[in-house]
Design goal:
The complex is a heterodimer. Chain A has no helices and 11 strands. By secondary structure, chain A is mostly beta strands. In chain A, the strands form 2 sheets. In chain A, strands 2, 4, 5, 6, 9, 10 and 11 form a 7-stranded mixed sheet that branches. In chain A, a hairpin with a 6-residue loop joins strand 4 and strand 5. The relative contact order of chain A is 0.32. The model of chain A has no long low-confidence stretch (mean pLDDT 97). Chain B has no helices and 11 strands. In chain B, the strands form 2 sheets. In chain B, strands 2, 4, 5, 6, 9, 10 and 11 form a 7-stranded mixed sheet that branches. The chains are: A mainly beta, B mainly beta. At the A-B interface, strand 5 and strand 10 of A face strand 5, strand 9 and strand 10 of B.
Chain lengths: 121, 110
């Protein structure tokens, strides 16, 4: 079955970097895009962008700073979200999602379990 | 900046019906926005309930239904159960590969 398994929780200091992984299984990785969504504590969902797993080209949400970078390693069916120069406001759970687009339908049909990134001195 | 609106909270009696809506601060929602709905219980990842306006995701019970009502996307829960008490988010596809989520609705079953 389709699964997205994310890396575990991390505690980072302000100014550091972190790389969240999202390993896909149960399907052909390059056939579906991967989206990223974050949720700050007690807040709603914020769509961050997506990456074309076939071309490696990312699309970032308007207003998302250059501190956020999406990447891939297709040899291991894994997508990555790297955040640099971490700020306390980056404390959140980060989710990866598979997006299915076929026959005129769009669906986020699989969610990772989430990765909690805590930024604190 | 696109703003997607949702009720902050709604309540429903057990066995009752409640409708959540998803609108745009500027403009009307239509099926071309591929409206989708997500359910999130505390401490868990969201799960997709409805996509492309009215399509139920895998294993979603048919008491959840999606539609367009008066220029907004709508999620209707019919025959509400205690475990329907949680947060619900809508998402709209704005074109150009861009999605926006609403702020979420907290549903209470009482």
């Amino acid at each position: 079955q389709v699964q997205l398994v994310q890396s575990g929780s991390e505690l980072k200091k302000p100014g550091a970097s972190v790389k969240v992984s999202c390993k896909a299984s149960g399907y052909i990785f390059t056939s579906f895009s991967i989206n990223w969504v974050r949720q700050a504590p007690g807040q709603g969902l914020q769509w961050m962008g997506w990456i074309n797993t076939n071309t490696g080209v990312p699309k970032y949400a308007p207003g998302l700073t250059g501190r956020f970078v999406f990447s891939l390693d297709t040899s291991v069916s894994t997508a990555y979200l790297e955040i640099s120069s971490l700020e306390s406001e980056d404390t959140a759970v980060y989710y990866c999602l598979r997006e299915r687009y076929s026959y005129g339908q769009r669906e986020f049909d699989s969610w990772g379990q989430g990765s909690l990134i805590t930024v604190s001195s | 900046q696109t703003v997607v609106t949702q009720e902050s909270s709604l309540s429903v009696s057990p066995g009752g019906t409640v409708t959540l809506t998803c609108g745009l601060r500027s403009g009307s929602v239509s099926s071309s926005y591929y409206p989708s709905w997500y359910q999130q219980t505390p401490g868990q990842a969201p799960r997709t309930l409805i996509f492309s306006t009215d399509k139920r995701s895998s294993a979603v019970p048919d008491r959840f239904s999606g539609s367009i009502l008066e220029n907004k996307a709508a999620l209707t829960i019919t025959g509400a159960q205690a475990d329907d008490e949680c947060d619900y988010y809508c998402g709209l596809y704005m074109g150009g590969g861009i999605w926006v989520f609403g702020g979420g609705t907290k549903v209470t079953v009482l």
